[in-house]
Structures are given as C-alpha cells and as structure tokens.
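The following block was generated as part of the benchmark described in Methods. Ligand: iron/sulfur cluster.
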Amino acid sequence: MTSPFAKTLTAWYLNNARDLPWRRTKDPYKIWISEIMLQQTTVSAVIPYFEKWIQKFPDVQTLARAPIQEILAQWQGLGYYNRARNLHRSAQIIVDEHESRIPSGPDIVRKLPGFGPYTTGAVLSIAFDKKLSIIDANVRRVVMRILSIEGEADTKHDKRVLEYLLTVLPEKGVGDFNQGLMELGALVCRSKEPVCVQCPVSKFCLAYKEGRQELIPTPKKRIVKDINAVIAVIEHKGKYFIQKRPSKGLLADLWEFPGGKIEADETPKEALIREVQEELGISPKSVKHLFDVQHFYTQFRVKLSVWRFDPIDIVPTRKDRKWLNPIDFNKYPMPSGSAKIVEKIFKKSS
Ligand code: SF4
C-alpha cells in the first residue's frame, strides 16, 4: 500500500514539477547525464550544458567513441572534471560489456565509474522505476525537518534519513516520488525561508509543528582558504601561449596559462618572473599588470593577478604547449579561473 506521505508528495510533484529537458524522457542515458551535471550546479545553469551535450553526444555509443579532450571541452565551466572522465569511462564499459545499454540492476551499475549510491538510485528509479531511495542535499534537508533532526546537514544523519525513506517509499512511481522530494527541497522546503504554507506535506512535518523549520538544519561553518596566484598572458603575433597540466592530480589534463602561487615573501611581479622562468625557462623583456580575477571553489578562494608577459625568447610548440588563435580557445578545456581570464582578455580586446 502506498503511504499517505508518498501519495501526497507524488500528486504534488506531478502537478508542480518544472518542465525540464531531462524530464521529458525515460532514456537512462539522458537521465544519467543530467544527474551528473546537476550534482555541481543549479538547474538553470545545467540546461544549456545538457542541451549542447545531447546534441554533441546523443547516445552512449557516441560518448564512448569521443576523444577525451572533446568531452572535457564540452564540460568546461561545470568544474569537477573527474565526473566527465567517469562518464567517458562508464560509457566505454557500457558499450563493451553491456551491449550499449545502461543495465537496470543496481549491483551492476554501482560498479561503473562515477555511480555512487545517489546516482545509481536516481538513474534507476527515474528510468526503470526501481525501488531505490536517494539522498542528496535537498532530500536530506527535507527529511531532517520532517523528523526534526537537529544538527548540521551532514551525512552522519543519512542512516536515519534512509530508514525513514524506506518506510514511505512507494512500490510504483518511485522515480516521481524521488524527484518529488528533490523538487520539494528545491522549490518549497528551501534551505533559507522554507515556504511551509505552500508545502503539500506540512501535516507530516515535525519541525513545522514545533515551529523550528528555520533552525533545522543548523548552518555549516565553512573554512575557506585564500590562494593568491599570478598568471602570465604571453602573446606573440596575435597568438596566445597555453600549456597542459599533468594527467594526474588537481585539474588534470586541462589547459592553462603559465603561472603559480605567490609565495609569502614575494610581490606578484617577482612571483610572475620566477614562475615563468621555472616553468618555461624564459625571462621577460617587459611585464605589465592587466587585471585581477577571483574564483571560488568549494574549499578555497583563488585570487589571480593577471599580467602581460613579453618574453625575450619564444617558447616552441610541443604536445603539451600550444600557441592559440583567440577563436581556438574553446577547443581546449580550461579550469574555470583561466576561462574567466580568456573571457576578460577577448572582451577587452574586441
Ligand atoms: S512544512 Fe516546511 S519545513 Fe516541513 S517539509 Fe514542508 S516546507 Fe519543509
């Protein structure tokens, strides 16, 4: 029997769901792509990425065959490039080992790169109506309020959250129920100022009854580290120099301008000259400060001091070093900070 909570929530979802491109299909491939993209940014930011991605890689075979550089370039701006690499690897496994079909068994899917419990539950419940619960930030917050669980919205509460979900999960229409919970968290049971008067499940909500919905969960204290770095924009005959990062570690395989961290005892100009000398072995004829760019990552804030660097010697091209015409920048995936610099340079010079 469907629980009263599931009945109420699902009915609300079916009447109130936003019309989003990935909700117009049951194609597990498209649902998978949308779920991975949605893990890092807002729905409105994902829509254009999703549409471009589906145009370029309409199915799992096309994705499996595509060169990784093309995939990373398409992902540029979404961050967390490892997720794009996992999409590629999983697509190749699905093509090679599962006849190009995303399997519907959770145990098999969980073995694919990038399929944690959330992604597995989301894709399989939405595409195949598998009876699986999912917990993301929205679901965790909603259930913490329903049960009036105190504390920060932390994964340590997930055991209780999951226990509750298993008592209310319907037999059929699991995908709509799961999406309903997430949609409720996004639109109504928002982290700040939940709109309880419009909430379809307020009669099940303990925090609302107690008037404590604004106090649950407690806001997280975030430690943000500041990083100051210099960037060298080297131009020669209308072309710009970029280099590829190593294949392992932070921002692996992405392209960027030369530069690096400013040490405690250095001015930005000193750091610029040292970094370029260390990385490329060249000295400047002249340098000029252009502008500063800030970029926020989850755990740190980067301030990039961007300089024009006119070198005495020209660095030769090689596999991991390129001189680019401005129109070719979009073919080379870059970290978000570098992409912001490109945008600023060409906006200024256009
Ligand atoms: S009543 Fe308020 S706090 Fe409770 S689930 Fe609904 S929106 Fe969230």
